[in-house]
């Protein structure tokens, strides 16, 4: 217990440090303690929404990865497992190449249609993954694979039609927060915490599910309901993240494994720690993306891979357990 | 002979046979042919009277058309210049063979070109089968303005239009000289040129746009960016504080909104409302760059030169 409390303290320390760095580091030199009106604008309207976007998107992706890994009992599962990324890419490609604009003023075209595309993919996956009124996780996997492939082909068709939009589409595929503002951040700030709370609420049931469906049923857990809630929740979290920041790889795969290696597989601990660490990790990666090729920005998805994967591989080499999967 | 030696001998003879078959180039050029070295360093034998050209790059199509558009028989779906090319495409005198990376090889074979103009290494996947079929594939791959000039003259020589190529270049140089004389007293202005709004993409070092901006009397605020173009954040634009903001024409809606967006109001050019628009075609890689230079100059200094 003392070890867990200490770990939480360390996590909060790193979260605060990463937030401080994200707010302090940038092209314009500002002192957080003596702000001119211009500095205030930069801090409150550019750096703060950007840091919060990174945190909620990173946390959301990591959490959805942890849920999918637990739900499908598959260590290779990540946030984009159910074809969500293909749906979001199709929406973004349609907005960019066909020039669709958002009907709602608070969304950009890419943001709105990538969200719509991911929801469309999600609906199709759950429609085809359902049988006799129930969801089977393996049917969901296969239906996700099918829908993902179908949407990817449509994205390829749009890419062939693209001219200068192609470059913007490539940046969408690699994710980033360079255009973050309150207008793009509000969705992450309002919706992600709700999803996170629901995920924490059913964590005990998810633990029981890991013991196998029969054991879970005999323990009084409504397995079908819990599976459906978590699958929809994780996919929805991914949709929000993609809509805010484009496609950011590896966070949903690496972070849950890292947390399992250190904290074990109890989802009551695993889910909150994964959320906090995922958010912290993406804030740090985005800060690196801001400065490493200055004045140009590196797509944050590149940084998550470059910095996250070596750490992950190191932990993998060191760890001998099976992380409860 | 050991098994290994036999395998080695068989392998070597296969490689030699394949090379001879694939190149077919042991013979000397025929009298009706000339050999030119392309931008990738390959010697290419080209007929003296080239009549049917397929171009797989818009800038190459434009150069051919400036010299002798009648000989261009195939182009890409992205070809837009000059006017004559567009007309010829409309009248089906030029066949669209696809894009630079996805041309229809069947259409190219049907056109039966005696010269195929391609880009650089990125089109190798397409050019290799064409070379193997015996088509003369010539790479024009200029890296800068000097390269464009050099390639234009080389193309003039290949098409037997050297005189015309020199004349066009001389006209451009004269126009540029006149422009420089008339504008030499202008104090250069710091410019932010945005080619895409979300994410914000701008131009960097060595890009054609950077070169055009410089000639027009601007200083690209991101000229230290070591790429042709790259993603930047609003904070970097605030830090560099441009006096003028230029957006590619399709971003009018975005540019209208920026005055209301936090952060943009901190920028000198936004405060003074010094915002202009330019069509993307004026920033293209072309020998006819002077139009773009003049338009940007007009935006920076409000006068037509």
Give a written overview of the molecule.
The complex is a heterodimer of chains A (325) and B (305). Chain A is mainly α and 325 residues long. Chain A has a single domain, classed as ABC transporter involved in vitamin B12 uptake, BtuC (Orthogonal Bundle), CATH 1.10.3470.10. Helices cover 74% and strands 1% of the residues of chain A. Chain A contains 13 helices and two strands, in the order H-H-H-H-E-E-H-H-H-H-H-H-H-H-H. A two-stranded antiparallel ribbon of chain A has the order 1-2. In chain A, a hairpin with a 2-residue loop joins strand 1 and strand 2 (134-135). The two termini of chain A are 23 Å apart. The model of chain A has no long low-confidence stretch (mean pLDDT 86). Chain B has helices at 3-23, 58-68, 83-90, 105-111, 124-132, 145-158, 162-183, 208-216, 234-240, 252-257, 268-271, 290-301; strands at 33-37, 43-47, 53-55, 72-75, 95-96, 115-118, 137-139, 189-196, 201-203, 218-220, 229-231, 244-248, 275-278. In chain B, helix 2 (58-68) links the parallel strand 3 (53-55) and strand 4. Chain B folds into two domains: 28-167, Nitrogenase molybdenum iron protein domain (Rossmann fold), CATH 3.40.50; 187-301, Nitrogenase molybdenum iron protein domain (Rossmann fold, 3-Layer(aba) Sandwich). The longest helix of chain B is centred in the middle third of the chain and has 22 residues, at 162-183. In chain B, the strands form three sheets. In chain B, strands 8, 9, 10, 11, 12 and 13 form a six-stranded mixed beta sheet that branches. A five-stranded parallel beta sheet of chain B has the order 5-4-3-6-7, with helices on both faces. Chain B has 305 residues and is of the alpha/beta class. The N and C termini of chain B lie far apart (80 Å). The model of chain B is unreliable at 15-26 (pLDDT under 50). The interface between A and B is medium-sized, with 30 and 32 residues.
């Amino acid at each position: 217990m003392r070890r867990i409390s200490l770990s939480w303290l360390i996590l909060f320390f790193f979260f605060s440090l990463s937030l401080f760095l994200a707010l302090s580091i940038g092209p314009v030199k500002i002192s957080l303690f003596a702000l001119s009106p211009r500095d205030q604008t930069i801090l409150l309207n550019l750096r703060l929404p950007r840091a919060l976007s990174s945190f909620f998107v990173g946390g959301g992706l990591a959490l959805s990865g942890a849920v999918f890994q637990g739900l499908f009992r598959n260590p290779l599962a990540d946030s984009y497992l159910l074809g969500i990324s293909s749906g979001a890419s199709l929406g973004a490609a349609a907005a960019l190449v066909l020039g669709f604009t958002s009907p709602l003023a608070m969304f950009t075209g890419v943001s709105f249609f990538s969200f719509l595309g991911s929801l469309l993919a999600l609906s199709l996956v759950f429609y085809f993954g359902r049988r006799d009124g129930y969801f089977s996780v393996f049917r969901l996997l296969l239906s996700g694979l099918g829908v993902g492939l179908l949407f990817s082909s449509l994205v390829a068709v749009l890419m062939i039609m693209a001219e200068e939009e192609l470059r913007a589409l490539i940046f969408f595929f690699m994710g980033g927060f360079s255009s973050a503002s309150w207008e793009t951040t509000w969705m992450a700030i309002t919706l992600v915490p709700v999803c996170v709370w629901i995920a924490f609420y059913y964590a005990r049931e998810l633990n029981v599910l890991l013991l196998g469906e029969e054991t879970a049923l005999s323990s009084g857990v409504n397995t079908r309901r819990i599976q459906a809630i978590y699958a929809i929740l994780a996919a929805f979290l991914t949709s929000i993240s993609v809509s805010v920041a484009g496609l950011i790889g590896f966070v949903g795969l690496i972070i849950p494994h890292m947390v399992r290696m250190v904290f074990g597989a109890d989802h009551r601990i695993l889910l909150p720690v994964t959320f906090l660490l995922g958010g912290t990790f993406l804030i740090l990666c985005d800060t690196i993306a801001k400065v490493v090729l200055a004045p140009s920005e590196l797509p944050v998805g590149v940084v998550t891979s470059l910095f996250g994967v070596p750490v992950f591989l190191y932990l993998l080499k060191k760890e001998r357990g099976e992380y409860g999967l | 002979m050991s098994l290994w030696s036999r395998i080695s001998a068989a392998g070597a003879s296969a490689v030699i046979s394949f090379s001879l078959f694939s190149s077919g180039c042991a013979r000397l050029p025929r009298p009706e042919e000339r050999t030119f070295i392309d931008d990738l360093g390959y010697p290419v034998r080209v007929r003296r009277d080239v009549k049917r050209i397929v171009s797989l790059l818009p800038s190459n199509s434009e150069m051919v058309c400036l010299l002798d558009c009648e000989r261009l028989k195939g182009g890409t779906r992205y070809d837009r210049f000059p006017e004559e090319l567009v007309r010829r495409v409309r009248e089906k005198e030029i066949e669209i063979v696809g894009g630079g990376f996805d041309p229809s090889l069947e259409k190219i074979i049907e056109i039966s070109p005696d010269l195929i103009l391609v880009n650089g290494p990125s089109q190798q996947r397409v050019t290799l089968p064409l070379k193997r079929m015996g088509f003369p594939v010539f790479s024009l791959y200029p890296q800068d303005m000097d390269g464009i000039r050099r390639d234009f003259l080389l193309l003039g020589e290949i098409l037997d239009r050297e005189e015309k190529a020199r004349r066009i270049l001389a006209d451009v140089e004269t126009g540029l000289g006149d422009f420089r004389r008339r504008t030499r007293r202008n104090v250069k202005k710091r410019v932010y040129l945005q080619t895409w709004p979300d994410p914000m993409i701008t131009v960097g070092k060595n890009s054609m746009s950077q070169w055009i901006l410089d000639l027009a009397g601007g200083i690209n605020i991101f000229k230290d960016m070591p790429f042709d173009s790259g993603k930047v954040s609003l904070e970097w634009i605030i830090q560099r504080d441009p006096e003028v903001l230029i957006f590619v024409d399709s971003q009018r809606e975005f540019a209208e909104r920026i005055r209301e967006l936090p952060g943009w109001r901190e920028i000198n050019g936004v405060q003074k409302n010094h915002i202009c628009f330019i069509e993307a075609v004026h920033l293209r890689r072309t020998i006819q760059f002077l139009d773009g230079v003049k338009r940007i100059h007009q935006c920076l200094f409000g006068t037509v030169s």
